[in-house]
Write a structure and sequence with these properties.
- The protein is an alpha+beta fold.
- The chain is built from 9 helices and 7 strands.
- The protein folds into 2 domains: about 260 residues, Beta Polymerase, domain 2; about 60 residues, no CATH class.
- It has a 7-stranded mixed beta sheet with strand order 2-1-3-7-6-5-4.
- A hairpin with a 2-residue loop joins strand 1 and strand 2.
- It is a multi-pass membrane protein.
């Protein structure tokens, strides 16, 4: 699947034109070309590399899977690697899809792997700001980054809501609630680790794009990139704080379980002490030697009274000290 757009002097002139026609406009300084390819094959990469004169190492990175978010600089173009992040509405798990971009003087080529990156939403951002289209490739790259960073931010927000839900279950006594906290905290930790690998490198990526020597971001576009950079910083700090919060939840859960275990052991020990008294008395009266009350009804009632009195006394004492 491919998408194409042609901007001439800041105005959208053509859309979804044949890829073979790109060579007509790629050399015109008044034109800005966008080409998007989803799940390209080997022939697609060869065509893109030949059409735009891309470096072999950049094309090799675009072919590979699980690349780290980064920005590489070559003589005629830039190579951008990033991730589109989303959360599953049913399970809440974080999923990420790779997005590669080749940035030349007047062209943006995006390579999407999978269906995670909603390119229609990127196009909506471009269409919502037609007055910025005159700034060329910098305008297109901003729309792409704005979409990606907003996705990171939304994923962090969803994880925050999941953590708040876990906090509400933390002090529940039900077995299902305890298992939900244990399983949920483990899943959250995995999602945060995955999200952290995607979000943290974006600070360096956006900061590098704003360097003046790259001549990509013009002065009017600088505040828009600064806004994206601010969102990247907020998402990064939020991710780090959530990571610490999940660790706190896991530690608190262990502490709560330990306290519950201590309470159970205290109750069991208290009841064992109460049961030990009748056992001791009956053991004493069960001796096979004569003693006061031996082989008489009085001895039986005396032992029974001692057991009842001592058991009630122990129970009252443990109850006052909240041991039972």
């Amino acid at each position: 699947m491919t998408h194409t757009r042609l901007y001439r002097n800041g105005a959208l002139e053509l859309e979804d034109f044949p890829v073979q026609d790109i060579s007509r406009y790629s050399g015109d300084p008044d034109c800005t070309v966008w080409l998007d390819v989803r799940d390209p094959g080997s022939s697609d990469f060869d065509m893109i590399a030949e059409e735009f004169g891309l470096h072999a190492l950049a094309v090799e990175d675009a072919r590979e899977q699980h690349e780290r978010p980064k920005l590489d600089r070559y003589r005629t173009h830039l190579y951008l690697s990033a991730y589109a992040v989303s959360t599953d509405p049913e399970t809440g798990r974080v999923t990420a899809g790779e997005v590669a971009a080749f940035i030349t003087a007047n062209a943006l080529i995006t390579i999407r792997k999978g269906a995670h990156c909603r390119i229609d939403q990127v196009m909506e951002r471009w269409d919502d700001s037609p007055d910025l289209a005159k700034y060329g490739v910098g305008f297109l790259v901003h729309g792409l980054l704005d979409y990606l960073v907003d996705g990171h931010f939304n994923a962090v927000q969803d994880l925050d809501e999941r953590i708040e839900a876990l906090e509400g279950l933390l002090f529940e006594d039900g077995r299902d609630e305890i298992r939900a906290v244990q399983r949920g905290s483990f899943d959250l930790r995995k999602d945060l680790v995955r999200l952290r690998r995607v979000v943290l490198p974006m600070r360096e990526v956006v900061n590098s794009l704003m360097r003046r020597d790259l001549q990509l971001v013009t002065e009017p576009m600088l505040p828009y990139y600064q806004d994206v950079y601010d969102h990247v910083l907020r998402a990064t700090e939020w991710t780090e704080s959530l990571r610490d919060l999940v660790g706190t939840i896991m530690e608190t859960n262990l502490t709560v379980q330990g306290n519950r275990m201590n309470l159970i052991m205290k109750k069991v020990t208290s009841w064992a002490a109460i049961i030990a008294v009748p056992t001791a008395v009956t053991g004493f009266y069960g001796q096979n030697v004569p003693y006061p009350g031996f082989d008489t009804h009085g001895g039986f009632w005396t032992s029974t009274g001692i057991m009842l009195v001592l058991s009630v006394l122990l129970y009252t004492t443990f109850k006052r000290r909240d041991w039972i």
